[in-house]
Design goal:
Layout lengths: L1 H22 L3 E7 L9 E4 L4 E6 L2 E6 L5 E5 L5 E7 L4 E6 L4 E6 L5 E6 L4 E7 L4 E6 L4 E6 L5 E6 L4 E6 L4 E6 L4 E6 L4 E7 L6 E7 L4 E6 L3 E6 L5 E6 L4 E7 L4 E6 L3 E9 L2 E9 L7 E4 L4 E6 L25 E6 L1
Antiparallel strand pairs: 1-28, 2-3, 3-4, 4-5, 6-7, 7-8, 8-9, 10-11, 11-12, 12-13, 14-15, 15-16, 16-17, 18-19, 19-20, 20-21, 22-23, 23-24, 24-25, 26-27, 27-28
């Protein structure tokens, strides 16, 4: 009886602590200046290595997660999109959208090791530890180039039948990728290098971001029609959908706090709590900066990081470019750090 009472008390305490973490809102802690010119895309936090890798046009900027300072740069790149970090082989990988290559680099020295030829316009990446391979998704080629992380050799190419946006691996032999132009999410069997399942995302449309709760087998898909759709990773069943901000581009999930983060181009991050595997609620709309659409989570400290910068007025529309995007004002690129 006494043991049961203690267990109930500990369970109640755990629930109260979890609720406190949810109710404590995120706030801006510091702005880390980076400078330079050009736009940005993905950023990746290596919590174990205490580094933050930030894409920035023709370079990857490396920051110390604790000190908030720039510690290195990998330059001479072309149209950087994403970074994959593979500590077990001491290697990192960067997609170059303008040269149809992936650049390998040494994690210790940050020196380039070589380039791997991919399909057209490689963008997002995901590392699958089950087969020790990096999946580079070719937005212009509607395919995935599978790269052996130890050697850098191409291990295969997978036809996707649509334009891939974001990807995540469960570490057990399944890799997931969303197709923005098809409103689908694909389940890839990484062992056979084949698409095993294709699931519709309605009511979600134009899926862009993707994160995963591996313990409860839930995928979180940020969609262009201002919805986050939660999907059963084994059956493809849509279990829930909740409203988010406009023009979502990237997402993250914190397994300790049960929070899903959806970063939106409108200058917000939507924070969603996983109340249960099939139940979700918005707990905060975090104000950031317009264009801060890429988020990284440090799972050790639970800090959030977002790329940001000031924008120049948009240029006049032309027949070749009917909807021109405003360019980033030189010297204003920075990283925003949010804490609780």
């Amino acid at each position: 009886m006494r043991k049961a009472t203690c267990l109930l008390a500990l369970s109640a305490l755990a629930i109260l602590l979890a609720m406190a973490r949810v109710q404590n809102p995120y706030r801006l802690a510091r702005t880390i200046p980076v400078g330079g010119e050009g736009g940005w895309d993905f950023m990746r936090a290596d919590s174990a290595g205490r580094r933050l890798y930030v894409s920035h046009s023709t370079e990857v900027v490396v920051l110390d997660l604790d000190a908030g300072t720039v510690t290195g740069r990998i330059d001479g790149l072309s149209g950087v999109h994403d970074i994959a970090v593979v500590p077990e082989f001491g290697r990192g990988f960067i997609t170059n959208g303008k040269t149809d290559t992936v650049t390998m680099f040494d994690l210790q020295s940050l020196r380039k090791v070589g380039d791997v030829k991919t399909g057209k316009k490689p963008d997002a990446m995901a590392y699958d530890p089950a087969i020790h391979c990096v999946f580079a998704y070719n937005g212009g080629g509607q395919s995935a180039t599978v790269i052996d992380a130890s050697s850098g050799a191409v291990a295969g190419t997978i036809d996707l039948g649509g334009a891939p946006e974001s990807s995540v691996a469960d570490g057990l032999g399944a890799v997931y990728v969303n197709l923005e132009d098809k409103n689908l999410i694909l389940k890839i069997n990484s062992l056979t290098r084949t698409v095993e399942q294709s699931w519709p995302l309605a009511p979600g449309e134009k899926p862009t971001s993707l994160a995963m709760d591996k313990a409860h087998r839930r995928l979180f898909v940020g969609c262009g029609n201002k919805l986050m759709v939660a999907v059963d990773a084994d059956t493809g069943r849509i279990v829930s959908s909740v409203p988010i901000g406009e023009n979502v581009d990237s997402g993250a999930y914190d397994p300790e706090t049960g929070l899903v983060f959806e970063a939106n181009r409108d200058g917000t991050v939507t924070l969603i709590h996983e109340d249960a595997p099939d139940k979700y609620s918005v707990v905060q709309t975090l104000k950031t900066q317009v264009g801060s659409k890429n988020v990284a989570l440090d799972e050790k400290t639970h800090h959030l990081f977002l790329s940001a910068g000031e924008f120049l007025p948009a240029e006049a529309a032309t027949p070749e470019n009917p909807r021109p995007r405003p360019k980033v004002k030189p010297g204003t690129f920075c990283v925003l750090e949010f804490t609780r």
